[in-house]
Structure formats: C-alpha cells, structure tokens
Write a structure and sequence with these properties.
Keywords: Glycosidase, Hydrolase, Signal
Mean pLDDT: 92
Number of helices: 20
InterPro entries: 6-hairpin_glycosidase_sf, 6hp_glycosidase-like_sf, Glyco_hydro_37, Glyco_hydro_37_CS
Number of strands: 16
EC number: 3.2.1.28
Strand content: 5-15%
Helix content: 40-55%
Protein name: Trehalase
GO molecular function, one term: alpha,alpha-trehalase activity
C-alpha cells in the first residue's frame, strides 16, 4: 500500500505546485505587514534571554571545577551538564560546597570523583533502550533497486542501527524532571549516537528520511510527536531535548518531516494534528527577533529571516572549550565591555542555532573567530527552509480542507520566492548568496539592498535552493546552477565540500555533511535536466562509497566525512569526531532507495 501512496502523493504534490503557479497569478499581493505573524520590530537593548534552571546553573559550577581538576586534555564539557542527580539539588549543592578546594578552586581528583560517584548518575543514564515497534530485520520491499549483495548486506546493517539507537526517557525523567537536564518526552526517539544521547531538531529530518526507507513509519511519527511536544511546551522546537537548548532552535524542518511522512503513509489524521503546531512554529520564525525587512532595487519590501538565539552567556554544553580548546571567556576577553561580550556570546549561540557550528561562513574575518556575526546575516538556506515551510503548510492545509490557510501561505511563499530573485540570487555566479546586513541592523526602517552585501564566498548552502521544487522545476535555472556547481571547487572525490576554506572549523573544507549532500542531490535529481540528474547520481555514488569504505574500515557510520579522500571521516571543530550516526545513516538509505546499486558495480574506492 505504501509505494502506491508514495507515487499517488507525489502526483498530488505536482498538481499542487501547478496550482501554486495558477493561484499566484490571481491572488492579490500581500500587504507590507505579514498577516501570518506579528508585525516586525527592532530588537532593541540587550535582546531576549531565556533563564536557566537552578540545576543547570549548578552543573556549570561542577563543570568548571572538573576543568580545573582534570585540565583540558580529553575534557568534554557536555558530559557534566548531562549528569543527573541521585537526590535533591539542595543536598547536592551543600555537599559540593563542603569539598576542600585549593586557592584556584580545584579539588583533588580523589575528592571530586568521590563526590560525582556519590551524588550523580552517569551521563546518559537518563535514557533507556526502547524496542522500536515497527522494526523488522529486512522489511518487505526494502531498497528494491539495490541489486549488489555486498551493498545490500551493508544497507541492512545500517538499517539495523535504528534499533541500536532507539531510546526513551527514563521513568526518573518523567517523575522527577527537576533532577535532570534531559527533558521529558512522551514518545521514543532515535538518538544520533556517541556523546549525543538526546534527540536533535534538524538531524531528525534525515533520520526520518532513513526511517521511511526502512518502512518504520510509527517510529518516524513518534519523532514528530516529540518535536511538537517541545514546540507546545517552549514556544519553539528546541535545538535538542536538553534544558541548555531552550534558548534556541535549529533549522526549521518540522513541516518537511510531516510532509514526507504523509507522502508515504497518506495519514490525514496525522496531518490534522500537526497543522496547528506548524503554523505556531511559522509565527515563531517570523517574530520580531528573527524577521527583518529588505527593500530591493525595485523598491519592493521583503520580509526575510535570520538566526537569533535568546542567550548572551557562554553555552553551558560548550562553555569551557570552543575553537581549538580556547575558553569562551578567553575568546571574549578581547572585548572591552560586558555588552560586547554578551553580543559575542549571542553570536556563538546563534551560530549553534544555524546547525553550522562553526564555519567561516559566519565570520567577518575568516581567521578571527571573535568576528562571528551570524545575527547580521540573512542565510540562503534558512530562508529556503521557511519557503518550504510555507509551501508545505499550504499543501497540508489543502489536504485537510483548510483552503483559507492554503491561500494565506501561498501568498507568503509567492512573496518569498520573489525575494530569492531580488535579494539572494547572483546572476554572474549562478548561485544564491547569503546577504549581510548593515551595521546597526536592528532598526525599524527597511534596509536597502546593496550588491556588495552579498557574501560572494562559495559555500554548499549557495546551492540549497535547488532542493525546492519551485526552483528545480525551472530547467534553464537548474542548468545554470549545475554549471556553477561543477566549476565551484566544491565537488570533490567523496562528495560536496562545505566550503573552500580550510579553517579547522568542522563546517568548512574538507568536511562534507550528509544533509548538504542530500538536499543538493535531491534537488538536482528532480530536475528535467539530464546533466543535472547525471551530476546528482555521481555525487550520490561518491557519498555512498565513502560511507561504505569508512564503515568497513572502522565498523561505524560517522557524523561527517573528509570529501578529499574516499573512505575517511571528517575532523575539526570543538569535539572529537562522533560515530553513530543518525543523519548519515538516513541519507545513505535515502540515496540507495533513490539510485540503487547495480549488481556488478564495485563499491570500493577507485
């Protein structure tokens, strides 16, 4: 039944996109103020800050003491803010304060380890294994295009990882949430793996794409249910399900998850339950802290969006180590006053909200980490995600008969589509470019577009708009962008590089990431251009190969890969390379489902 629904819904979606074009010709233009969101206003003063819980404040003290006790070597700050208490907070704080300390605040290793063992559970103990209700070792109709037995055997091993990484919160989290930084969630989750023992927002989209290839529809729906729970509880979908993530979100892909699940299952009730939360999230991303107005060369105003975390202190999960083991506080010491330091901390947290933490993409000076300026950038990919949100909501609303909602969101998507032509598109480069706001961007008046404010450095995100059918259906545009991609320098032996700058940051060269490979490949493969589809298939095959060879060498799937060398995992950034790994597994399965692997085709590196 599911394959029939998949193709039927694809056809329905095509007809819907055609109706988008027809309806956009008849709909009246939107007024300056977006009726779907509160009026945009300036972010004046220091900006909003989400307060931390007493437990989290205390765990940061424990974290700082651990650093002083053990030193920086093999120190992971996240470990200490993931600890859960064995008894109440006041008792634990009292015992901590009684520990004998030296003048610099350190505690002997023996005393500190004794304290940790007596008063804390191990990090990760607050999640327990959950047997997936819909896992079978080899689902019926699994990856029918994969004919090579070696590749098929590997794909089944990757499929089996869903079972290995299925978790639910412990009963203690549900009954005593005050003892945990892990947030209580109603349904089981798929964790990324390694140090990441909680669900993450944008990771979940590619996890779900893999689960759908594995026919695990109920597990996929449970992930969406959990994200909607976070949205309803906190007003936005959190970066991840920990107390220290409440101050920011991540790239908004919830509507895309709902669309993909409906596309496979035809579950209208699931859509009905999801639609109100999706509209709520849309309003969050179009609230005053995220939305700014840019006036183009034709004097047209465009509402566009940025990342903006509600935080102005060192991040608890990474506060003591960032950027080559320097302290957040050390990095901030170059600033002369508290307001400058607070703005730097907000930029760091906002970069984490982008999912690209960290990259020269967000720095005014690519060699100086303290020039992070993420809140003064209108990112191409964020605005594509919001355009997709508008189209998804319009489609899903039409599915359940909410035609007024459909028309509202079609108007919004029509407006944003025009912005991509006038604000982000660069004709000479054949790419869509991030737009840098003027200094003092938080003003009530629209900013006037300037060509020199486009960031003309090449990043993989410059090609992400191809993911949207409104763009990949234009064959002439696709062919121009495909040519640009082929000459950009990003196409490497093992996939698409994130940037051309080898900075040591993990979202730069030579690292390649599963989400970027998938969005660009899927966009190219949907095109009517034979050249674009050929490039898509070639990238997908290179990515599949490097994942396979690395898996055979190391016995694991990896968070990121070195695209210069087939079969090598990536490095750089503020923590050691991680294995598991949710979105890498999902993209490999999605690619194998789409492109298959012929029986006689080799899978090893050339």
């Amino acid at each position: 039944m599911a394959p029939f629904l998949y193709h039927t819904n694809r056809k329905r979606h095509f007809l819907f996109l055609f109706s988008v074009f027809i309806l956009s010709q008849s709909l009246p233009p939107m007024a300056l103020t977006n009726p779907l969101s509160p009026p945009s206003s300036c972010t004046k003063g220091p900006g909003p800050v989400i307060p931390v819980t007493p437990l989290l404040s205390f765990l940061v003290r424990v974290q700082e003491t651990a650093l002083q006790t053990y030193g920086k070597s093999n120190f992971d700050p996240k470990h200490y803010v993931d600890l859960s208490l064995k008894s109440n907070l006041s008792t634990t704080v009292e015992a901590f304060d009684k520990l004998p300390k030296t003048e610099n605040g350190s505690v002997s290793v023996k005393d500190f380890e004794g304290f940790i063992g007596k008063y804390f559970n191990d990090a990760g103990d607050d999640v327990v294994y959950a047997e997936p209700v819909d896992f079978v070792p080899e689902p019926h109709g699994f990856l029918p295009k994969v004919e090579n037995p070696e590749v098929r055997g590997w794909a089944l091993e990757v499929h089996a990882l869903w079972k290995n990484f299925s978790r639910k919160v412990s009963s203690s989290v549900l009954h005593h949430p005050e003892l945990h930084t892990l947030l209580p969630l109603p349904r089981p989750v798929i964790i990324p793996g390694s140090r990441f023992t909680e669900v993450y927002y944008w990771d979940s989209y590619w996890v779900i794409r893999g689960l759908l290839a594995s026919k695990m529809y109920e597990t996929a729906k449970a992930i969406v249910t959990n994200l909607i729970f976070l949205l309803d509880t906190y007003g936005h979908v959190l970066n991840g399900a920990r107390a220290y993530y409440t101050n920011r979100s991540q790239p908004p892909l919830l509507s895309a998850m709902v669309y993909e699940i409906y596309n496979r299952t035809g579950d209208v009730e699931f859509v009905k339950k999801s639609l109100p939360p999706l509209i709520k999230e849309y309003r969050y991303w179009n609230s005053d802290i995220h939305e700014l107005i840019i006036r183009d060369a034709e004097q047209c105003n465009h509402f566009l969006n940025r990342y903006y975390a509600m935080w102005n202190k060192p991040r608890p999960e990474s506060s003591t180590i960032v950027c080559s083991s320097l302290h957040d506080e050390e990095l901030a010491s170059k600033f002369l006053n508290d307001s400058e330091k607070q703005q730097f901390y907000r930029e760091v947290a906002s970069t984490a909200e982008s999912g690209w933490d960290f990259s020269t993409r967000w720095m005014r000076n690519s060699s100086d980490f303290t020039t992070l300026s993420t809140t003064t950038i209108l990112p191409v990919d964020l605005n594509i995600f919001i355009l997709r949100m508008e189209l998804d909501i319009a489609f899903l609303a039409k599915t359940v008969g909410e035609n007024a909602i459909t028309e509202d969101f079609l108007r919004a998507s029509q407006k944003r589509q025009k912005a991509f032509s006038s604000i982000f598109w660069n004709e000479n480069m054949g790419q869509w470019l991030d737009y840098w706001l003027n200094n003092g961007a938080d003003c009530e008046e629209p900013q006037t577009w300037k060509a020199e404010n486009q960031n003309q450095k090449v990043f993989a995100s410059n090609f992400v708009p191809l993911w949207i059918d409104l763009f990949n259906s234009d064959i002439h545009l696709v062919e121009k962008v495909t040519k640009s991609l082929k000459t950009s320098g990003l196409l490497c032996a093992a996939g698409i590089a994130t940037s051309l700058t080898n900075s040591g940051q993990q979202w730069d060269f030579p690292n390649g990431w599963a989400p970027l490979q998938h969005m660009i490949v899927e966009g190219l493969s949907k095109s009517a251009s034979m050249e674009a589809r050929t490039v898509a298939k070639d990238i997908a095959e290179r990515w599949i190969k490097t994942n396979y060879v690395a898996y055979k060498k190391t016995g694991a799937m990896h968070e990121k890969y070195d695209v210069e060398k087939c079969g090598e995992f990536g490095g750089g950034g503020e923590y050691t390379p991680q294995t598991g790994f949710g979105w890498s597994n999902g993209v490999v399965l999605a690619f194998l489902e789409e492109f298959g692997w012929p029986k006689d085709k080799k899978i090893d590196c050339d």
